[in-house]
């Protein structure tokens, strides 16, 4: 126990004196949370930049309906689908009535007001334009028949438009706001960035011959690594608390909404623990693979950025195409982020985050075992 | 009585040929200063690693005096400590790793500090100290557990004559106090100054093991040039001019 405490104390002293490491672990993610949440507020409130999926349902065959459909399909901001799926924002039904084409719009529950206004305006415009065209054709025909100029003071009637709301699957379809997305995202990123200082200190000890000296001491061969993991585990927990405090209390000071933490603190603690296990396992694996601190910084840094890009940290998963979303399923950062979103956004409990927590725990154990194996081979 | 008897030691690094050590047998008398000589790549550090228990024994056997087996220490050639910690923090950390606590911890740290002349540098960070102080810290850490056997891997590399003189005197004093020293170096005059038994290895093979007296008697039969004699005297002359007091 004395030896373990000495190792932990040493590690904390090393970390406190590593200004760059502290900046990387605490200041960088806080800056990212602040900047990205504020910069992307509008984007998130508009439900992203990808095309808005709409199912078009034609209830009758007529030239007027075909024309309205054609006019709508010119709008490239919408993705027209033959059938609805969980991503569909609107279902538009066009039917023929005595007074002209009638449109019914069903709105998905997670569709923002701005998107709804945009779509309704587009449908109104298409209906109006079709009626105007029909009217002009009638006027032209009368002119031809009578051989006189005819003026028509009647404005086309307003198209009949009914908007209804579909509340089915409202909870599962929830999308995060900028704060809800960015706080957990950059928190996960920051926890994984403990890889860099952790790997660097391990490699420095190897290069300086300190590990060689430690092997002559009456201590377990595992102690130098365990004594390093424990302080970093606590550093990760401090990161979680700090980043959540930033989300809850600091973001409203900058005009953004406050982070909602959901109802399961137990789930939150579970996610925090397993995420740290995964990040630290990845860290000692990088340390075992890299020969120099430069290599570790490059491997760890670039690896983290790739995992973040794939895992929905930098670009939210809901704006990714399906293929990319499937690839994202392989990033441990995505597991961490989805776990946090389950709690913050979908009011999930411990049971809801078990798949993500299990994957992270498995990832952490496998990377640690692999690192130990490589470390043992390298000592020969 | 012997502190270590190593017989038919062989070692091959994974994926490397030829063997780093091949059928090496040495005997280290208790309380001796055992010099291990050889050019770069001869196998000195590998032999030291095997004797100190850092490397797993592949061939042969190593027998320790039971009383000393668990009480060994290694001073590696590298600065094997934490540069961003102060000397005091480094010593406290390694004392903790040896399992020392309370008054015993303070006593052992005081012993190492005084043996290596570090008292006035304790609050400096190791990274800010001169090469001489760092070498002495490297040695001091090895003395924290008051070892019965001390392995020294080129402990005077890259330091000035004053620090080297101090370290050699310290080692001589430790030996006089009963410690068994196994010492590797490239410097013949160092070996000649402090060692009483020598082993010379090259290409992983033991060429010779004998007492220093016997080896010097053999060396006297060889032709010696005036330049070689001057090389030995140069350091004495330099120290008489610059004196032996430590500068940092």
Fold blueprint:
The complex is a heterodimer of chains A (380) and B (248).
Chain A: H1 2-16, H2 19-39, H3 41-45, E1 52-58, H4 63-73, E2 78-81, E3 90-97, E4 100-107, H5 113-146, E5 161-165, H6 178-192, H7 195-208, H8 210-214, H9 223-250, H10 265-289, H11 293-310, H12 322-328, H13 332-344, H14 350-378
Parallel strand pairs in A: 1-2, 1-3, 4-5
Antiparallel strand pairs in A: 3-4
Helix pairs in contact in A: 1-9, 2-6, 2-9, 4-5, 6-9, 6-13, 7-10, 7-11, 9-10, 10-11, 10-13, 10-14, 13-14
Chain B: E1 2-11, E2 21-29, E3 33-37, H1 44-52, E4 59-64, E5 72-75, H2 87-97, H3 102-115, H4 131-142, E6 149-153, H5 161-176, E7 180-184, H6 188-194, E8 197-202, E9 205-211, H7 212-220, H8 226-242
Parallel strand pairs in B: 3-7, 3-8, 5-6, 6-7
Antiparallel strand pairs in B: 1-2, 1-4, 8-9
Q: How is this structure best described in words?
A:
The complex is a heterodimer of chains A (380) and B (248). Chain A has 380 residues and is an alpha/beta fold. Chain A has helices at residues 2-16, 19-39, 41-45, 63-73, 113-146, 178-192, 195-208, 210-214, 223-250, 265-289, 293-310, 322-328, 332-344, 350-378; strands spanning 52-58, 78-81, 90-97, 100-107, 161-165. Chain A has a five-stranded mixed β-sheet, with helices on one face. In chain A, helix 4 (63-73) links the parallel strand 1 (52-58) and strand 2 (78-81). In chain A, helix 2 runs parallel beside helix 9 (223-250), helix 9 crosses helix 10 (265-289) and helix 10 packs antiparallel against helix 13 (332-344). The model of chain A is unreliable at 167-172 (pLDDT under 50). Chain B is of the alpha/beta class and 248 residues long. Chain B is built from eight helices and nine strands. A six-stranded mixed β-sheet of chain B has the order 5-6-7-3-8-9, with helices on both faces. A three-stranded antiparallel β-sheet of chain B has the order 2-1-4, covered by helices on one side. In chain B, strand 8 (197-202) and strand 9 form a beta hairpin. In chain B, helix 3 crosses helix 4 and helix 4 runs parallel beside helix 5. The relative contact order of chain B is 0.18. Classes of the chains: A alpha/beta (380), B alpha/beta (248). Chain A binds chain B through residues 2-3, 5-7, 9-10, 13-14, 17-18, 207-210, 212-219, 377, 379-380, and chain B through 13-14, 49, 52-56, 70, 72-74, 76-85, 89, 92-101, 141-142, 151.
């Amino acid at each position: 126990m004395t030896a373990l405490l000495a190792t932990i104390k040493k590690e904390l002293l090393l970390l406190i004196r590593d200004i760059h490491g502290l900046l990387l672990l605490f200041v960088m993610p806080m800056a990212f949370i602040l900047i990205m949440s504020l910069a992307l507020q509008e984007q998130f409130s508009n439900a992203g930049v990808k095309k808005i999926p709409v199912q078009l349902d034609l209830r009758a065959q007529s030239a007027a309906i075909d024309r309205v459909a054609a006019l709508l399909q010119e709008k490239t901001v919408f993705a027209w689908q033959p059938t609805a799926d969980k991503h569909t924002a609107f279902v538009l039904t066009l039917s023929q009535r005595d007074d002209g084409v009638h449109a019914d719009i069903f709105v998905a529950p997670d569709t923002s007001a701005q998107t709804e206004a945009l779509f309704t305006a587009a449908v109104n415009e298409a209906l109006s334009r079709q009626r105007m065209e029909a009217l002009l054709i009638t006027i032209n025909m009368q002119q031809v028949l009578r051989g006189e100029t005819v003026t028509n003071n009647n404005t086309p009637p307003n198209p009949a438009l009914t908007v209804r709301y579909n509340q089915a699957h409202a909870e599962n379809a929830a999308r995060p706001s900028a704060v809800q997305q960015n706080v957990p995202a950059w928190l996960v990123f920051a926890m994984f960035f403990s890889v860099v200082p952790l790997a660097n200190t391990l490699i420095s000890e190897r290069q300086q011959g300190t590990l060689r000296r430690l092997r002559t001491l009456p201590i377990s061969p595992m102690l130098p690594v365990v004594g390093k993991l424990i302080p970093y585990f606590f550093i990760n927990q401090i990161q979680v608390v700090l980043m959540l405090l930033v989300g809850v209390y600091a973001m409203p000071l900058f005009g953004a909404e406050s982070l909602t933490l959901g109802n399961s603190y137990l789930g939150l603690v579970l996610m925090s623990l397993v995420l740290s296990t995964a990040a630290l396992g990845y860290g000692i694996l990088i340390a075992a693979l890299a020969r120099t601190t430069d290599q570790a910084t490059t491997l760890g840094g670039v690896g983290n950025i790739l995992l973040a890009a794939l895992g929905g940290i930098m670009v939210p998963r809901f704006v990714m195409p399906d293929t990319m979303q499937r690839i994202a399923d392989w990033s441990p950062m995505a597991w961490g982020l989805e776990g946090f979103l389950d709690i913050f956004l979908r009011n999930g409990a411990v049971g809801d985050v078990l798949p993500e927590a299990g994957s992270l725990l498995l990832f952490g154990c496998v990377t640690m075992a692999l690192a130990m194996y490589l470390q043992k081979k390298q000592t020969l | 009585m012997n502190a270590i008897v190593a017989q038919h030691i062989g070692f091959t690094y994974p994926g490397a040929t030829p063997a780093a050590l091949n059928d090496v047998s040495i005997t280290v008398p208790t309380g001796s200063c055992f010099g291990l000589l050889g050019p770069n790549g001869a196998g000195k550090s590998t032999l030291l690693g095997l004797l100190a228990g850092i490397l797993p024994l592949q061939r042969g056997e190593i027998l320790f005096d039971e009383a000393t087996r668990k009480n060994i220490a290694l001073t590696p050639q590298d600065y094997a400590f934490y540069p961003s910690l102060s000397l005091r923090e480094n010593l406290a950390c390694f004392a903790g790793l040896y399992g020392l606590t309370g008054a015993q911890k303070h006593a052992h740290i005081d012993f190492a500090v005084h043996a290596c002349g570090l008292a006035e540098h304790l609050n400096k960070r190791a990274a800010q100290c001169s090469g001489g102080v760092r070498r002495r810290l490297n040695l001091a850490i090895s003395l924290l557990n008051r070892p019965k056997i001390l392995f020294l891997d080129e402990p005077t590399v890259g330091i000035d004559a004053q620090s080297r003189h101090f370290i050699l005197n310290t080692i001589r004093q430790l030996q006089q106090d009963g410690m068994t020293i196994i010492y590797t170096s490239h410097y013949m005059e160092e070996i000649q100054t402090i060692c009483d038994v020598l082993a010379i290895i090259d290409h992983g093979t033991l060429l010779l093991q004998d007492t220093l007296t016997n080896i010097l008697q053999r060396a006297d039969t060889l032709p010696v040039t005036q330049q070689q004699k001057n090389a030995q005297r140069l350091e004495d002359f330099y120290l008489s001019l610059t004196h032996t007091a430590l500068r940092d």
